[in-house]
Amino acid sequence: MQAQAPSPLFNDPFFQRFFGDRFSFGVPRERVQQSLGSGVIVDAGGLIVTNYHVIKGGDQFKVALNDRREYEAKVVLADERTDLAVLKIDTKGEKLPFLSFKDSDTVEVGDLVLAIGNPFGVGQTVTTGIVSALARTHIGVSDYQFFIQTDAAINPGNSGGALVTTDGKLIGINSAIYSQTGGSVGIGFAIPSNMVRLVVESARNGGHIKRPWTGAQLQAVDAQLASTLGLDRPGGALVQEVYPGGPAARAGLKEGDVIRSVDNHDVDDPQSVRYRFATKGFSGKVTVRYLRDGRSFETQVALEAPPETPPADRTLIKGRNPFTGATVANLSPAVADELGLDALGGKGVVILKIEDDTPAQQIDFQPGDIVVQVGDAKIETVKQLVGATAGTRAQWDFAIRRGDRTFTATVGG
Fold first, then answer.
1. Which CATH number fits domain 315-412: 2.10.109.10, 1.20.81.30, 2.30.42.10, 3.30.365.10?
2. Residues with catalytic annotation?
3. How far is CA 70 from CA 58, 73, 207, in A?
4. Do the domains at 216-302 and 315-412 have one common CATH topology?
């Protein structure tokens, strides 16, 4: 007999994103799970965008249209860093109605918007409200945090649905709510359409996302730091480190500079800077205004991809050792950007992913961990790690760096 959850609500990925398993009431998870979410048709040929967390962990996907037609769907692109995914259905040549994108930078606080989705699985529902805030960057549900806030009612099941302007254009993808009850309290967040458009275009062009990078490590300027720097107010992004020869370095930016705007859009923190660069693509340069020694300057920063220097040398570790089942790579700006790490020019070997039911998973290695040492050997390249893990040992001593902390451990061979 299969155990059943107290309510279908608890299987909804939108709900679980904020409450996890706190409401499972001791009921074990079923091996086969179903969940509901919303999506938006953005192409007459059957291209659909939704949230990554809606399709995460799934292997079969079915799309039901408002007229009750159903289609099997396949994932074209899934991007955890933006919390967006693009699916494709085969319409057999039939053209579908779709939503066109609107420039999300044209939206203002107070604009009327509509939230469309399938809340609680009751069927397509439209709610209305206003844009209550812009550029929310401390929501914590994706690497590119830069959300449109709305008071249009958004509930579990709306995740992946459309936020639409009154002229019928897509302005965002509903992705998160702030709630202590699981239901709408009038604070919902949507990924801006300019970011959504970038992901959809990447899906059309091969399914791989490349993003420009600044070539600089940045820090938010709070009130205390602003006072230390002699600034009139907090806000902006402090340049902590500059990658030699990178876009920021060639543009003349230095450690201690404070970036205040990108292409005439004010930026309040590093997340805002990353968003502005990411949504520009790779055409030309952006204008960056910054403060240095109390004076304001402007410079042009090139839009280019982070370099893969040294070459990644992606390798799956095999054999009888703690790292078996881990795919690793040489750390580079490109690999660091792929994993959302702040590393600029650091050396090392970083874990990219972990295979299920392997020693690496049992030890609880995580993507982004940097291998520092195995036994007496310091590890700086994939080749060195492969050599250090060859053969068998009675016990394995190793050290990894996770964030700003280094962990050491010993396990049996």
1. 2.30.42.10
2. 53, 83, 159
3. 17, 9, 24
4. yes
CATH classification of 216-302 is 2.30.42.10, yes or no? yes
Instruction: Check: CB of residue 263 under 8 Å from CB of residue 232.
Output: no
The whole-angstrom separation of Cα 200 and Cα 85 is 8
As given in the structure block, the two tokens for residue 230 are 């002699």
pLDDT single digits (tens) 138-188:
555 455 667 899 988 887 778 889 999 999 999 999 987 766 666 666 788
Q: pLDDT tens digits for 279-338?
A: 888 878 999 999 999 899 999 999 999 999 999 999 999 999 999 999 999 999 999 888
For tokens 């420039």, name the residue.
103
Quick one: tokens of 40?
A: 């938006």
**Domain ranges in the chain?**
1-209, 216-302, 315-412
Residues 76/61, Cβ–Cβ less than 8 Å = no
Burial class (CB in 10 A: 0-12, 13-18, 19+), 275: buried
For the domain made up of 1-209, the CATH class stated in words is mainly beta
d(CA 12, CA 7): 10
- Give the C-alpha separation, 398 to 411, whole Å: 9
Shortest CA distance to 22 belongs to which of 154, 182, 153? 182
What span, in angstroms and rounded, lies between the C-alpha atoms of 400 and 78? 28
Question: Which residue bears the tokens 């909804």?
Answer: 12
Q: Is 326 helix (H, G, I), strand (E, B) or coil?
A: strand
Q: Is 128 exposed, middle or buried (0-12, 13-18, 19+ CB in 10 A)?
A: middle
